[in-house]
Amino acid sequence: MNLVIGAFTIGLILSLLSLGMLISFRMIRFTDITVDGSLTLGAAITAVLIAAGWSPLLATMVAFVAGMLAGSVTGLLYTRFKIQEILSGILVMTALYSVNLRIMGRSNVPLLDTATVSLPLQHLLSQMTDGERYILLFGWQVPVVDMAAFLSSLLLCAVFAWMLSRFLQTHFGTVLRATGNNVQMVRAQGVNNNMMVVFSLALSNGLVALSGALLAQYQGFADVQMGIGMMVWGLASIIIGEALVGKSGIGIAIAGTIFGTILFRLLIAIALRWGLNPNDLKLVTALFVFLALVAPRWFKFVHVKINKKSKHA
Amino acid sequence: MFMSKSIKNRSMLEIKGLIKTFFPHTINEVKALRDIDLTIQEGSFTAIIGTNGSGKSTLLNAIAGTFIPDSGSILLAGQPITFWPEFQRAKLIGRVFQNPFAGTAAEMTIAENIVMAMRRGLSHPLSKAVTSKARAEIKERVSVLKMGLEDRLDNPIGTLSGGQRQALTLLMATWLKPKILLLDEHTAALDPKSAAKVAELTKYIVDKEKLTAMMVTHSMQQAVDLPDRIVMMHKGKIVADYQKEHKQRVRIPDLLATFDRVQKKELFDESVATLLREQYV
Questions:
Q1: Handedness of CA B79, B83, B88, B93 (dihedral sign)
Q2: In chain B, pLDDT over 90 holds for what percent of residues?
Q3: CB-CB contact of A237 with A45 (8 Å)
Q4: Domain B2-107+161-250 in this protein, CATH class
Q5: Taking CB atoms and an 8 Å cut-off, how many pairs form between chains A and B?
Q6: B32 close contact with A: CB closer than 8 A
Q7: Which of A7, A40, B176, B179 is the most exposed place for a label (fewest CB within 10 A)?
């Protein structure tokens, strides 16, 4: 049960990463690799600020803003300086590696025995259970600390998912979605499409950094390597979500992304439990995304072949 | 009566000395616009005809702001828009493209597409886009198309036919009255039946809203039927201009004859003449 709660908590935290990537990848169709750097950026800033005695909530908010800044830089490289999409992201991601090291002062900042955003909930739960260290959930003993972390991730994820879905249905959000769909049309409606790209990347990376900030607090450290491969991770989650519930409608896309992230995390947790070497994790993730991207085309190919055969018959 | 007459004679668009060369100083150099002067009166409907590569679409794109001209000036509704970026001009300009898929966002619903057109050139605030009030207005105006689309407002626009999408694009381009409506061969990619329907709708909307419009077309019939002025272009220049009473008398054979005359004359255009003079005189 602890494994499941843990997987759910990390899944919920990483949902913010996937939601951010939903904006860049699916809405404005921008392959943004900045993600790998901005996730670490969020974690690094939060870790250093909390270690310096800042309130966890404030530290997390600063991480969000820093992520937005990183995203805007990628956006400006692409729109203002006409650097290729992928390269803009790679440049910022590479630069962020040094920035993150500078922020942390070393490659790893531990966050043991410090306050986190889930502390208020932890206090509340402790009061409700008269100071018990464990809560009984469906017959399992779950540590109050883990339960608090799970519930606060759930709360944050729900709040951001709700705000995102509301935002995407505003005039501004509608234009944002159209920008990835048909740039020519958006320009003809008097929208500065370059500005929309910069804003979308800022919002996207803000959410990614937020995810990094929460992840650092949950696992108790920030590491300069922790962002590596997270873009592929997010992409895998989005693809699973789409396979689960489809992508018709904003609410469905958002819910699907969250479900996809949690499910992917659960699958990984189970695979690790069964003896998957953690070193192979990135390889497996990459292979999974490759298959997910190729499979639909392959099915179509088979379909066409079958149709052809039936025609000849 | 007097008032309406004075408005009729005001110019909406003034183009002076417009020049554009693509890929200058290379073997692919194209002199797309060579010193174009054109004034469009308010409330007039002008067709621009000409062969492939004559510069018709380039002229329309120059007005829409797809590129910045090498020299010359464009004045639209009294505003010097020559150097405005494309998105900024959208405030003044409604556009329908040749490609029926270009004017709408395929994966978004009919209502969402129209809501964007309802605020063409205005700010896009953080308030709900498709409100019930907006929906009612959309329903009312879409029903004018008589295509049954008013009952499918929440369907992705990509599920509609080319003709339906082009009709919606036309409606969107004119939702807020534009200073000028630019139609770039907007019926060319449609089947004959849809093309006729969209052409009819164009005439209806332009007349009803008293719009100023420019239409690039390959269809001689359309050029004779719809507008009240015909401008013929060839090799980046305006070679014929039929207006008012003159336009009333123009028939398709007249246009074809002019085409032939222009093309024959081209054998001895200015550059060739200069060349001959230099070599033989």
A1: positive
A2: 38
A3: no
A4: alpha beta
A5: 87
A6: no
A7: B176
